[in-house]
Write a structure and sequence with these properties.
Blueprint (H helix, E strand, L loop, with lengths): L3 H12 L6 H8 L5 H12 L2 H9 L8 H5 L6 H11 L6 H15 L7 H21 L5 H14 L3 H16 L5 H16 L20
């Protein structure tokens, strides 16, 4: 069952995801989620030996320096990551900013219901998100973003990615039917691609910046 208080938050995100973003909905959900559902998510993640090892190691990279990345060889992962960040008007500190926000939420007690294993998973997920754009080839358009969320859900059955599916499919159905075909094309492409690809979310990409992206 969906908790009524959380249902109001969910409706607010359905109506205006820009003002009520999915990452806030995700953070708020854990204090309303049934214990058996939370346990299922943890068990599914930890059942993968590779992901279990990654979580237990707790790898988290230091912030990247865009000036250093700009000097890396053309075609290298580091240079392509730099170009992605710059071309999309982003900041390399976005993951650090989210970690600070996450730490604030945790200190306030807002994340008390979130299992520790998944606290790490969401932090690392924010850190690799833009790497996954570079690696997968999905652009920063609305359809590109949702395709990457579907790709990520196929790689790891994590509620954050599932919430994105819920929000966009609800909005296309009830608010903007003309988006049904492009959104479903993006979701199905991302899902198939993610299912057919080794788990890219558990790789320490920051240790491979000098390697050619083509590899």
């Amino acid at each position: 069952m969906i908790d009524e208080e959380f249902g109001e938050m969910l409706l607010a995100t359905f109506n205006d995801p820009a003002d009520h973003p999915v990452h806030l909905l995700f953070n708020r959900w854990w204090n309303h989620a049934p214990d058996d559902v939370k346990t299922t998510y943890v068990d599914d993640v930890m059942a993968d030996p590779a992901y279990r090892a990654f979580i237990e190691k707790g790898y988290y990279a230091d912030p990247l320096d865009l000036d250093e990345l700009r000097e890396m060889p053309t075609g290298s992962l580091g240079r392509c990551y730099h170009d992605w960040i710059v071309d999309n008007g982003l900041t390399a500190a976005i993951a650090t900013d989210y970690r600070d926000f996450h730490t604030h939420l945790e200190a306030s007690g807002a994340l008390d219901g979130m299992p520790d294993e998944l606290k790490y998973a969401v932090l690392r997920g924010f850190q690799v998100h833009d790497f996954l754009h570079v690696l997968s080839g999905y652009d920063s358009s609305g359809v590109g973003e949702i395709a990457l969320q579907a790709f990520s859900l196929a790689q790891m059955q994590f509620p954050y990615f599932g919430m994105w599916m819920s929000v966009v499919t609800t909005r296309m159905t009830l608010c903007d039917p003309k988006m049904i075909v492009p959104i479903m094309d993006g979701i199905t492409d991302g899902w198939r691609y993610g299912r057919d690809t080794e788990n890219l979310m558990i790789v320490e990409w920051e240790t491979m910046l000098d390697q050619p992206l083509a590899e």
